[in-house]
Specification:
Blueprint lengths: L12 E3 L10 E7 L1 H4 L9 E6 L15 E5 L2 E6 H9 L3 H4 L9 E4 L1 H8 L7 H20 L6 H27 L9 H13 L1 H15 L12 H13 L10
Parallel strand pairs: 1-4, 3-5
Antiparallel strand pairs: 2-3, 2-6, 4-5
Length: 251
């Protein structure tokens, strides 16, 4: 299936070109991934993430609008506003970073996008941060254990998994202890070096995972539950702004 197909997958995700979206519906978009973390190197892909508003009347029919649009040339993922909110309320690390990017990495910022940035703390909760960040870091650790690092190509992939493991754990602790999502890593070289070490010594990652779990079990700055009210009110404003009244014929 080509990247320009409009076929809707079972998950509700559609592979389509960004041009398939109605003009003006992207509310917030920016460069994420390794570039945002400060881990990019020559040859690194440029990953973009954003959110869009589907026309409100599209929710009134039998079939709901696609919840995501994904392209591979360029690498870009756009989530519908409600789906993004659900992901952010679960503290999904990839989705959440969109509202915590360094200013220079935003490529689209609308007034509604700025409003979302303004309520970003309301999406956070201690339990969701622990479950999401530790969960993703553990996935990276399992991938490490299946790599044959005697092969240069798989050794490089192992180091990449290790870097993301370290990054996720550092972000989780910072979120828990400060209530702020630190997307741009303060010391990328240290993360790279630790990633290289973990690729050869996975036991180092086991200790990091255990230490992070212990720190996340201590009292922090995050509430037990997120506050859904700001997101709900924001979505109502999005739906109102993207509703087109039906044209009625004169009698």
């Amino acid at each position: 299936m080509s990247a320009t197909s409009d076929t809707v997958l079972p998950s509700g995700t559609a592979l389509s070109s960004a041009s398939a979206l109605p003009s003006g519906t992207v509310l917030l978009s920016g460069i994420v991934g390794s570039t945002a973390y400060g881990l990019a190197h020559a040859g690194s892909d440029i990953d973009r993430l954003g959110l869009f508003a589907a026309p409100t009347e599209g929710f009134h029919g039998l079939h709901r609008p696609a919840e995501s649009h994904v392209t591979t040339a360029p690498d870009r993922t756009l989530h519908e506003a409600a789906k993004w909110c659900r992901l952010a309320l679960s503290c999904n690390p990839t989705a959440s970073e969109l509202v915590w990017l360094p200013e220079e990495l935003y490529e689209v910022r609308t007034p509604l996008g700025d409003e979302l940035i303004g309520i970003r703390r309301s999406f956070l909760s201690a339990r969701a941060v622990r479950n999401a960040y530790l969960g993703y870091a553990t996935q990276q650790f399992r991938k490490l254990l299946t790599r044959d690092t005697t092969d240069p190509a798989t050794r490089a992939r192992a180091a990449k998994h290790a870097r993301h493991l370290v990054r996720l754990l550092e972000q989780a602790v910072h979120l828990h202890e400060t209530g702020h999502n630190l997307v741009r890593l303060p010391d990328p070289e240290r993360v790279r070096g630790l990633g290289e070490r973990i690729a050869d010594e996975p036991a180092v990652a086991e200790r990091l995972l255990a230490d992070t779990a212990d720190r996340l079990d201590r009292p922090g700055m995050l509430p037990d539950r997120p506050d859904e009210r700001p997101a709900d009110a924001w979505l109502h404003r999005v739906r109102a702004a993207h509703y087109t009244s039906p044209v009625t014929s004169a009698p």
